[in-house]
Amino acid sequence: MPMLEGKVAIVTGAGGGIGREIALAMALAGAKVVVNDIGASLTGLGEGSATPGEQTKAIIEQRGGQAVTNTDSVADWESARRIVASAIDAFGRVDIVVNNAGILRDQIFHKMTPEEWRAVIDVHLNGSFYVSRAAAEPFRAQGSGAFVHMTSTSGLVGNFGQANYAAAKLGVVALSKSIALDMQRFGVRSNCIAPFAWSRMTSSIPAETPEQQARVEKLKRMTPEKNAPLAVFLASDAAADVTGQVFAARNNEIFLMSQPRPLRSAHRGEGWTPELIAEHAMPALRAQFLPLDRSADVFSWDPV
To answer: What is the average pLDDT value for the chain, to the nearest integer?
Structure first.
């Protein structure tokens, strides 16, 4: 029996790229799929279009699956509730939510505008909350459900010019962990994937210097469908004991990512003054300081 037979999945941002590949893979695994996509530009600006979502739906149906489209925005509470309602209206239930919808408004921090900040937070972080919160009600009632949230190494590790995106994506990790803790007693699981792929979301990466060009060439070898098997597994009953975790998928590699924990401590029974911190605490802790890494620094080897 296919791993998702009898289940209903919502995949946001499923009109292309990673979202489309996850929607297609979940349909092939037996799920009925709500293909959500507003059909806007990478920045979220301009007129929306139902075409990207309809194209994903058509592929699913050509392969013998079932799907419906939805063009509501994740970035609005009532709109997000309509996304979940569309699954119940079409298929009678919802079992899986993949929070994949995203936009980019890259800008160096000291030039970033409040509008650029809010737009990205609204889609990635608020959108993940809105859709998850809407689905939490049927999940709780039926005693089961799986959330798969897309995070990013831009938030987990760091990157230039993406304060808005990085903050949102690290916030998604904390949101996922909170969902996992709060809803475990209802049989609901929540995990994150940091995907690596050449898609619309990465096509804006600069490729001006030889170093940047080399990085882009590596990314182009990592196609979006490489992330789909992990998403299908995490959504399936085979992952019944997997929750609150953060994974990364990079071509043929799967990583379990660390979560913040104490590295080292310094103790002084009489307490600390700023001077004593400078003299004793910082020298004791400094060996464990983390460098100002970017994702490309940590994942520096060629994908295989």
So the answer is: 93
Catalytic residue among 91, 129, 165, 247: 165
Tell the residue number behind the tokens 């569309």, with chain if given: 86
Q: Which helix (H) or strand (E) covers residue 139, if one does?
A: helix 127-142
Its pTM stands at: 0.92
Closest CA to 107 of 164, 158, 168, 157: 164
CA distance 296 to 215: 8
Backbone angles phi, psi at 205, to 5 degrees: -60, 130
Please give the pLDDT value at position 139.
98
In the sheet with 96-99, reading across from the earlier edge strand, the strands are 67-70, 32-36, 8-12, 96-99, 145-150, 188-196, 246-250, 253-256
Hey, CA dihedral for 228, 21, 148, 233, is it positive or negative? negative
Of 68, 26, 61, the closest CA to residue 236 belongs to 26
Encode 78-105: b = buried (16+ Cβ within 10 Å), e = exposed. ebbbbbbbbbeebbebbbbbbbbbbbbb
Residue 203's pLDDT band, with cuts at 50, 70 and 90, is: low
Can you list the domains of the chain with their CATH numbers? Answer: 8-259 (3.40.50.720)
Q: Which two tokens stand for residue 84?
A: 């979940």
Q: How many CB atoms lie within 10 A of CB 210?
A: 8
What would you measure as the largest C-alpha separation in the chain, in angstroms? 72
pLDDT at 79 over 60: yes
165 included as an active-site residue: yes
Q: What is the pLDDT of residues 128-152, one digit of tens each?
A: 999 999 999 999 999 999 999 999 9
